[in-house]
Structures are given as structure tokens and as C-alpha cells.
From TrEMBL:
<feature type="domain" description="ThuA-like">
    <location>
        <begin position="12"/>
        <end position="221"/>
    </location>
</feature>
<dbReference type="InterPro" id="IPR029010">
    <property type="entry name" value="ThuA-like"/>
</dbReference>
<dbReference type="Pfam" id="PF06283">
    <property type="entry name" value="ThuA"/>
</dbReference>
<dbReference type="InterPro" id="IPR029062">
    <property type="entry name" value="Class_I_gatase-like"/>
</dbReference>
<protein>
    <submittedName>
        <fullName>ThuA domain-containing protein</fullName>
    </submittedName>
</protein>
Length: 226
């Protein structure tokens, strides 16, 4: 006979790492794991999407982190992932690993609250401005400069926007002045969703504000930050 889980059992997180190798998913998985373990979560790494085929097991996680640029989900994998989040599992991630994952799956994109469309100029310096200063993810954090891919995204107007960036039009003049959400939260059923478009290269996490924004966002999605 095994003991049943107790209220003191650590929350569990699942990191899904794979897809397009240009976003260095396995290197990012090391950073994400360290963040979550330092906060007391028990972390499982998966490098195959077949883990999404066990619907019951997915609901045991407090947090699922998609770290998987592009590629495809089967219908079953997509339904199971969405059902777990709708039932209360958190979903959190960043850049292409979550915001440019499974491009053909519009149901997945609806859950995330946005989808990558372009990054004019590719890697370039830009400014990120915090906009929801009373949110637990951003409270006390200041805007910052970053050199990365400045994502132009199609976004859900129901998102709670935490941070934005403004395109200067140097690359595409017709988008000059466009204010684009960078980080947001949203509900999906009973689940919490967090996303940030920053995070093209693991070295970006050396920036203390970038690291703290993502750490808090993941913990908020997991229900460990109120």
C-alpha cells in the first residue's frame, strides 16, 4: 500500500522540450528546471510529445511548460493538454517555445492567447515597458533594454497585459509606433496561463529582470505566487 499525496507534497511541473533546435530547448530546460526546483517544485523533463497522451497524468501537474518551437500535436495530444489546463493545471512559457509552438493548432493558440507572426530585423535591441505594476508577476519590476527577437504577435484582446514593446519602424516603417504586448496572463477554464515573448537565447536570462519576470510568471501559473 502506498501513501496518498498530502497537502505538504511538492507541486509538480512538466517541462516539454524539443522542436526546432535553433531556440536551444534543452539548454533552456536546464534554466527552467533550476528556477522551479529552487522554488520547491518537483520537475519532470520530457523530450517527446507522447507524454501528452496520458490525460490523467497531465492533470497531476501544477504547471506545464511548453518549450517546443513549431512541430505538430496530434488531435489527442492537443485535447489532453487543453483539458488539463482547463481543469486547473497552469501553463507557462516564453518566446517561440510556447508562442510559436504547433502553428497549425488554433485551439492551442487560443489557449496561449497569442501566436508569433514576425520579428522584423531579427535580433536587435529594444525596450520592454512594464504596464501592470500591481500584478504579482511584475510588482516592483522596472522596464528594461534587451537585445533579442522583438516579436510581432497576433494577440487575444482578453489577455491581461503585463509588459509591452513599441516598434520604432526602422525595419518596417508602416508599423512605427505599434505597441505590442510582450508578457501577459489569462485564464483558460480553471487554469492560469503566463506567456512572455522574451527569451530567444539562454544568455538573456542573465538579465536579472528577465530572469525574475519569467520565474514569477511560471510560479504564478503554477499557483505558487499569489
Amino acid at each position: 500500500m502506498t501513501d496518498s499525496p498530502t497537502a505538504t507534497s511538492p507541486a509538480r511541473a512538466l517541462i516539454l522540450s524539443g522542436g526546432w533546435p535553433g531556440h536551444q530547448p534543452h539548454q533552456f530546460a536546464v534554466l527552467i528546471r533550476a528556477m522551479l526546483e529552487d522554488a520547491g517544485l518537483e520537475v519532470t523533463d520530457a523530450t517527446t510529445l507522447t507524454v501528452l497522451e496520458d490525460a490523467d497524468a497531465l492533470r497531476d501537474y501544477a504547471l506545464i511548460v511548453p518549450n517546443w518551437t513549431m512541430d505538430k500535436l496530434t488531435g489527442e495530444q492537443s485535447r489532453n493538454l487543453r483539458a488539463a489546463v482547463e481543469a486547473g493545471t497552469g501553463l507557462g512559457g516564453f518566446h517561440g517555445g510556447m508562442g510559436d509552438a504547433f502553428r497549425e493548432d488554433t485551439d492551442y493558440q487560443f489557449m496561449v492567447g497569442g501566436q508569433f507572426a514576425s520579428h522584423p530585423g531579427n535580433i536587435r535591441p529594444y525596450h520592454v515597458e512594464m504596464t501592470a505594476l500591481d500584478h504579482p508577476v511584475t510588482r516592483g519590476l522596472s522596464g528594461f533594454e534587451i537585445e533579442s527577437e522583438q516579436y510581432y504577435m497576433h494577440v487575444d484582446p482578453s489577455n491581461t497585459v503585463l509588459a509591452t514593446t513599441t516598434f520604432d519602424g526602422q525595419i518596417l516603417p508602416w508599423i512605427a509606433g505599434t505597441v505590442m504586448p510582450v508578457a501577459w496572463t489569462r485564464p483558460y477554464g480553471q487554469g492560469r496561463v503566463f506567456y512572455s515573448s522574451v527569451g530567444h537565447d539562454p544568455r538573456e536570462f542573465a538579465h536579472p529582470t528577465v530572469a525574475e519576470l519569467h520565474r514569477r510568471g511560471l510560479l504564478w501559473a503554477a499557483g505558487s505566487l499569489v
